[in-house]
């Protein structure tokens, strides 16, 4: 085993089903590769539909017991899980950086962010309140109670290999559901480390299961069609999300979908330019631009366009690119060569149609999966980069004249996950916020994710909300009890 990996006790090379570390039934395995240097970190089971069906059945057996435990008991176990994640945050962060590439300081931030959902829902577990509704007749009582949906499946992406799991699984487990997780092919090790810590926290066998696979189609089909699965939560591309929706419709499952984005970042002429630049940098370049809520299109008023683009280009050119485990690195690699090729093709398309490169614009001299932080200007809306999610360190900057034009450009997309805008005019803040068709809006702020607020999108960016008090309701059924014949 490579000595660069953290504590071997957290490095697992088996899937986790019903409280047991197991191989795939086929005994097939696949390698997990460090995108920064191509090193093989470990090999994990390449599970099939048959393995997944077994996990679902075990989760169902566990649900029959777990759903009848008290909310206080579930709360205590989740709290222990949270404590263990925080205790091992350095080891988890090192593991995460090596399998997904993000700088170590960002991985540490994600561990704390992801753990916050476990902490939050350990508290919310005790607050799944029902109601007593005034009845129309004296001999009746109307009660509303909430109960767990059932076995849930979670299909998670590689760019946040811990937080996307805890954001889905913590509320599910808190509500009394059991879960089967299919982590991204590229980043299963963080998920398996979470399973190890869940076991140490005392989570019973079958409540939290992790199925690893190199190709998710067969596993995803089981998780979206199996009759024992009552809820599916997916974070990923809109195309895959639509397929899972179709598959889950046959058995009318509950669904949460957090899909693609095309986030606008609007800078009005009355914006605080220092704050706008800082917000642009943290929003765009977190995880090397590989986040679903990062700024995808910068839409800047013509009066401040030159100032903004020049300052953004200077800051972008100064970013330190390299292996996320190296000290001082601010930008890691893209996840694979396909990602590099996609980003480069978007830049080339823009340049071929008249776009200007202020800085960057090509694969990094480090080679491999590294790409230069890039700022593009003189752009038009017919370019691919205006409509497609970039998922890389590229800032396309568009120009606008009026408030109405900025809103129209921002909403000109089928997506509606996150949006950002900067203005010091309070009347404008309320006008623009109400007209942007997005589920989350950062106003004079570039980082908006927190366990306290509902995370989710509109239009083709998905449905349902994760985090906050609303996140627990996604895993609860509302049951109405009419109690008649009472002698009162």
TrEMBL record:
One of its GO terms (biological process) is gamma-aminobutyric acid catabolic process. The active site is at residue 258. It comes from the Bacteria. This is NAD-dependent succinate-semialdehyde dehydrogenase. Belongs to the aldehyde dehydrogenase family. NCBIfam families: SSADH. Pfam families: Aldedh. InterPro entries: Ald_DH/histidinol_DH, Ald_DH_C, Ald_DH_CS_CYS, Ald_DH_CS_GLU, Ald_DH_N, Aldehyde_DH_dom, Aldehyde_DH_Superfamily, Succ_semiAld_DH. One of its GO terms (molecular function) is succinate-semialdehyde dehydrogenase (NAD+) activity. Keywords: Oxidoreductase. SUPFAM superfamilies: ALDH-like. Residues 21-480 form the Aldehyde dehydrogenase domain. The keyword Oxidoreductase applies.
């Amino acid at each position: 085993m490579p000595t660069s990996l953290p504590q071997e006790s957290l490095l697992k090379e088996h899937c986790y089903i019903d409280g047991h570390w197991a191989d795939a039934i086929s005994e097939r395995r696949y390698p997990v590769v460090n995108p920064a240097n191509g090193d093989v970190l470990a090999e994990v089971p390449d599970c099939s539909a048959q393995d997944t069906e077994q996990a679902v059945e075990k989760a169902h057996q566990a649900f029959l017991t777990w759903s009848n435990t008290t909310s206080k008991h579930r709360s205590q176990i989740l709290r222990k899980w949270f404590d263990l994640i925080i205790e091992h945050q350095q080891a988890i962060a090192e593991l995460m950086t090596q399998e997904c590439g993000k700088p170590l300081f960002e991985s540490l931030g994600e561990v704390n962010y992801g753990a916050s959902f476990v902490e939050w829902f350990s508290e919310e577990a005790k607050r799944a309140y029902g109601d007593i509704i005034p009845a129309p007749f004296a001999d009746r009582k109307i009660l509303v109670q909430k109960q767990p949906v059932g076995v849930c499946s979670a299909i998670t992406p590689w760019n946040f290999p811990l937080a996307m799991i805890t954001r889905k699984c913590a509320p599910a487990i808190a509500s009394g559901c059991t879960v089967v997780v299919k982590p991204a092919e590229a980043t299963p090790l963080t998920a398996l480390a979470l399973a190890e810590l869940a076991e140490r926290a005392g989570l019973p066998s079958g409540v939290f299961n992790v199925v690893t696979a190199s190709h998710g189609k067969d596993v995803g089909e089981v998780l979206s069609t199996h009759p024992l699965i009552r809820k599916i939560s997916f974070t990923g591309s809109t195309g895959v999300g639509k397929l899972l929706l179709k598959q889950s419709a046959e058995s009318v499952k509950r669904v949460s979908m957090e899909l693609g984005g095309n986030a606008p970042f609007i800078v009005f002429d009355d914006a605080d330019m220092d704050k706008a630049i800082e917000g642009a940098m943290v929003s765009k370049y977190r995880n090397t631009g590989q986040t679903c809520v990062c700024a995808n299109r910068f839409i800047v008023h013509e009066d401040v366009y030159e100032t903004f683009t020049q300052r953004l280009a200077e800051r972008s050119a100064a970013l330190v690119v390299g292996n996320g485990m190296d000290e001082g690195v601010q930008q890691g690699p893209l996840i694979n060569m396909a990602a590099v090729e996609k980003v480069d093709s978007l830049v080339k398309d823009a340049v071929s149609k008249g776009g200007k490169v202020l800085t960057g614009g090509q694969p990094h001299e480090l080679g491999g999966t590294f790409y230069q932080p890039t700022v593009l200007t003189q752009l038009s809306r017919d370019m691919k980069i205006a409509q497609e999610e970039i998922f890389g360190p590229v800032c396309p900057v568009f120009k606008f004249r009026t408030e109405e034009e900025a809103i129209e450009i921002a909403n000109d997309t089928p997506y509606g996950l996150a949006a950002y805008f900067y203005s010091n005019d309070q009347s404008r803040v309320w006008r623009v916020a109400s007209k942007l068709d997005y589920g989350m809006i950062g106003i004079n702020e570039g980082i908006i994710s927190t366990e306290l607020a509902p995370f989710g999108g509109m239009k083709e960016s998905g449905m349902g909300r994760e985090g906050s008090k609303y996140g627990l309701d996604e895993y609860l059924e509302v049951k109405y009890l009419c109690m008649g014949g009472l002698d009162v």
